[in-house]
Amino acid sequence: MTEEVILLVEDSDVLRQGLKSLLEQEDYKVITGGNGVEALEKMEETTPDLILADILMPEMDGYELFEAVRGRSEWISIPFIFLTARRERRHILAGKRLGADDYLLKPISPEDLLTAIRSRLGRSQQLLLAQLQESYEASLIMLANAIEVRDPYTRGHVERVMNYAQTIAEYLGWSTNDIYTLRFGSILHDIGKIHISEQILRKEGTLTDEEWIEMKKHPEMGVELVQGIHYLDSSIPVILSHHERWNGSGYPHGLKGEKIPIMARIVAIADSFDAMTTERPYRKELTPEQAFNEVVSGSGTQYDPLMVDAFTHAWETDKITEIFLAFP
Ligand SMILES: [Fe+2]
Ligand SMILES: [Fe+2]
After folding, report:
1. Closest-CA residue to 54 (of 76, 27, 78, 86)
2. Is there a contact between 163 and 274 (Cβ–Cβ < 8 Å)?
3. Ligand 1 centroid distance, CA of 201 (Å)
4. Domains in the chain, ordered, with CATH?
5. From ligand 1's centre to the CA of 219, what distance in Å?
6. Kind and range of the H or E element at 43?
7. What digits encode the pLDDT tens for the residues 46-71?
8. Which ligand is the nearest neighbour of the Cα of 275?
């Protein structure tokens, strides 16, 4: 891990030196400034991972520094901790109102200071990770939608399948992390269709045997596409097995019952429900009600009965209809 940089802004030389050596002992890289102006100059050269600043300083005080830092978009998420000797309530309130992450009172014990710094750095890393995950998801949706464009009858398919699947998982009480993986899998489930010819995807009327053979390759082709991309590994079970059926009559492997990965069993329901409620070249769409009844009647043959139960709960509370209406 690269060393983390702390910008320490303090007008007292003694205190600045003392804090600097304390932080350096903990392997932080420390840059310093004696007031807000100096701090901003330093920040032009090096962007710190955290700012620790006194409030009362000559030239530019801590509050002014805070506002200058937050005014720049590239610095907006740097954790900012105020450090001050003033025990007056109004200073604490002013700092909090400005939105500082923490407010530490001098004299402060080294342990308390280090704990505050570590927790702020940890939190800002989590935030960065969350932002990163969000942008991954957005770019994957873009890619999946690009594939959908070739298949004009399935516009919005990816988003709806993702939301139907998530609703089922929520009824099953899944953790945020597992739901996140499931969303990824849902986005990518048909990614292998990128290799299926447009002529097959857009064909009006039923597919010939050869065309079906071709179409049925999309799960395995999808796996080939994402294999080796570590971040997408967890979506492979969904990509590979979303056309398997509970009674073993699905493809590509004819897996039966619980041999089918659970995420794929969920996406199978979400995917079929969406396919049934959208118009396809070869048939007219069903109403949500009719499609729901189809899913229920496939319980135990095409679909996992437990997943159908969860889907039924979601249906009864109108969650499914809400999604159906929200992504036209
Ligand atoms: Fe598919
Ligand atoms: Fe699909």
Report:
1. 86
2. no
3. 12
4. 5-124 (3.40.50.2300), 150-326 (1.10.3210.10)
5. 7
6. helix 36-45
7. 999 999 999 888 888 888 999 999 88
8. 2
